[in-house]
Write a structure and sequence with these properties.
Blueprint: E1 10-15, H1 20-24, H2 27-31, E2 33-48, E3 59-60, H3 61-66, H4 86-91, E4 101-117, E5 120-133, E6 136-149, H5 152-163, E7 168-170, H6 175-183, H7 204-221, H8 223-228, H9 232-251, H10 258-295, H11 300-324, H12 327-345, H13 356-374, H14 383-403, H15 412-442, H16 448-461, H17 465-477
Antiparallel strand pairs: 1-6, 1-7, 2-3, 2-4, 4-5, 5-6
Helix pairs in contact: 7-9, 7-12, 9-10, 9-14, 10-11, 10-12, 10-15, 11-16, 13-14, 14-15, 15-16, 15-17
Length: 484
């Protein structure tokens, strides 16, 4: 569930169907309710466009029926082409109605409460119902909180109490996104990191909160694609998001209580390892093995390697699904949301010299100096040193992306691009090292020839990269600092 910038602290949870009644009766929820809860029915229809990622806000089903637009017919859903209702057309904001067809309906009962939590006021909505069309239905049960007054800390305490007896999972996407995944050919959307907008006078705390939000939205936004749709790009983006988060934890080290920082870093490393088990096999199959298969199509050992690697990838995806459904995963997300609440409570702006622009400049210069030291004698450096340099460059690039909006250097984008190219060249060498490790898990005498073909082909393909690496490193090492 996205935490919106510059808006009330919000948090939502998905509830298992067999836990709904238990949550409705929970004394902590009922006992903190002010006044009488309000119940209302929401009945919306969602439409899908021709483009795979086409989405639009839900439209009230009753108004559609009044306009003569049916819901779901044998051809896959009625069209908006003949809609003449001015209010509906206004909501469509000029979209060409010929290309939109009804995909599914959302029918839920919403119970709305105002909670009084020791000086804090929280709006609570519990919605239960279904997403459905003519092909079937998917249950919906979601608990949504929004702090309207006071500290989010009281809400987090309530959530801890609820989780002692009710299984709650942080809701990472809106219910309708699941509807599009289940009832259309579009599948889940792949979410990439959005640019982060900072201002020079912003406090470090406010900037850190905004960066954490960005990392969490990037990470959780790809959960559906990675876990349920098992899309390799979804796993890749989740892994990138975790790397961005680890970079942020390093850049802002010391801003949160040390014991909690240590705990969060341990949990993030755990999740990164789980993602790595799935992603490494994706890379092996799609990037390392596939081009060799194309050149040596008749080599039977390559087919054996693919079969064995695919089995390990399936195991990696099952491990990821188990991790995401665990209490440990939910604990990590809730802890990070708690951090954001604490950071948001700090002043939004700082005096000159203690603002985010000064902090970014100092941090960027230190990260750059560390990378330059790590890259000394690069062309003769052992694999371990090159690996450490790649990680340092990655941290430097992510820090640059975090602070891009407040760094005035006209060379900023060029230098970040160069860092990315260096990462890519060093990463190819790392992929080959990982491939050797993976082959030790799946190789056998019958695949020895295929293993030799695979490693030899990639070693030959990478021979020319040494010159490119040397050229790009010299260019980076001699470039003017972007942090001044």
């Amino acid at each position: 569930m996205a935490l919106s910038m510059d808006q009330p602290f919000t948090l939502a949870f998905d509830v298992a169907a067999d836990e709904v009644d238990k949550l409705r009766r929970h004394k902590a929820l009922r006992g903190s309710t002010e006044g009488r809860p309000v119940t209302r029915l929401e009945d919306l229809t969602f439409f899908a466009g021709d483009a795979a990622d086409a989405r639009m806000p839900g439209i009230e089903s009753g108004r559609l029926r009044q306009a003569g637009i049916g819901m779901f017919d044998a051809s896959g859903g009625s069209s908006l082409a003949d809609c003449a209702d001015p209010e509906i057309l206004l909501g469509l904001r000029g979209l060409d109605t010929r290309h939109w067809r009804a995909a599914f309906g959302k029918r839920v009962s919403k119970v709305e409460r105002r909670l009084a939590l020791d000086g804090s006021s929280v709006d609570c909505v519990f919605e239960v119902g279904t997403l459905s069309n003519s092909s079937g239905s998917v249950p919906v049960a979601r608990l949504h909180f929004a702090v309207t007054e006071g500290s989010p800390r009281r809400l987090l305490d309530l959530i801890d109490e609820l989780r002692r007896t009710v299984a709650l999972r942080v809701a990472v996407r809106e219910p309708e996104e699941r509807g599009y995944a289940n009832f259309t050919d579009a599948g889940p959307q792949i979410i990439r990191a959005e640019p982060i907008e900072l201002v020079p006078q912003m406090s470090r705390e406010a900037a850190y909160a905004r960066i954490l939000r960005s990392c969490i939205e990037h990470w959780t936004g790809n959960e559906l694609a990675a876990v349920e749709a098992r899309m390799p790009e979804g796993v890749h983006q989740m892994r990138v998001a975790l790397r961005r988060l680890r970079a942020a934890l390093s850049v802002f080290k010391g801003l949160m209580p040390v014991p909690r920082e240590i705990w969060v870093k341990e949990q993030v490393r755990w999740l990164a390892r789980v993602l790595g088990h799935a992603r490494e096999w994706d890379v092996f199959l799609d990037d390392t093995l596939a081009p060799v298969e194309a050149h040596f199509a008749d080599e039977p050992g390559l087919a054996m390697l693919r079969k064995r690697a695919s089995s390990h990838r399936d195991e990696g995806y099952r491990g990821l699904a188990k991790a995401v459904s665990s209490d440990r995963y939910t604990d990590l997300l809730i802890e990070l949301y708690g951090w954001i609440a604490l950071l948001d409570a700090a002043p939004a702006h700082s005096e000159a010299g203690d603002d985010i622009a000064t902090f970014a400049e100092e941090k960027g210069q230190r990260l750059t100096a560390r990378a330059l030291r790590q890259g000394r004698h690069l062309m003769s450096a052992p694999a371990e040193q090159r690996h450490e340099l790649r990680l340092q460059l990655k941290k430097l690039r992510y820090a640059g992306e975090f602070f891009r909006s407040i760094i005035p250097s006209k060379h900023f984008n060029t230098t970040l691009g160069l860092i990315g190219q260096l990462q890519g060249i060093l990463g190819e060498g790392n992929d080959l090292a990982v491939a050797r490790e993976l082959l030790m898990k799946i190789g056998e005498p019958a695949t020895a020839r295929a293993e030799g073909l695979l490693l030899g082909w990639h070693a030959a393909a990478g021979c020319h990269k040494g010159v490119d690496l040397h050229h790009k490193w010299q260019k980076f090492a001699g470039a003017k600092s972007i942090w001044r």
